[in-house]
Design brief:
single chain; about 100 residues; mainly alpha; rod-shaped
């Protein structure tokens, strides 16, 4: 191969790698936007609903403590469901990971 052919081959490889990197960055940005758009309102709404119910029912003392204890369990369930959703979105957009721990 001449120097010109080697230079062209290297330039092609660099260009292909650049395109792949830009594509992966765009997919990660879309993934992050979807995760935030779904997770943030869900968690905020769950917490706001718990607070609103406690204020409007006038819960006090041990009843309020028990209510918020149950609320923590509900939030843990919401986080678990969101975690599964995020895993599925990640797998759909970015493909299977190399670590089996993270695979859905």
């Amino acid at each position: 191969m001449s120097v010109t052919e080697k230079s062209i081959a290297v330039a092609r490889r660099v260009f292909v790698r650049l395109v792949a990197s830009v594509r992966e960055f765009a997919l990660i940005a879309v993934y992050a936007a979807i995760v935030v758009a779904v997770s943030a309102p869900t968690i905020i709404a769950t917490g706001a609903a718990m607070y609103w119910v406690s204020v409007h029912l006038g819960l006090e003392g041990p009843v309020r403590t028990a209510y918020f204890g149950v609320g923590v369990v509900v939030l843990m369930f919401v986080f678990a469901m969101l975690h599964r959703f995020v895993q599925h979105v990640g797998r759909a957009l970015l493909g299977a990971t190399r670590e089996p721990y993270y695979q859905v």
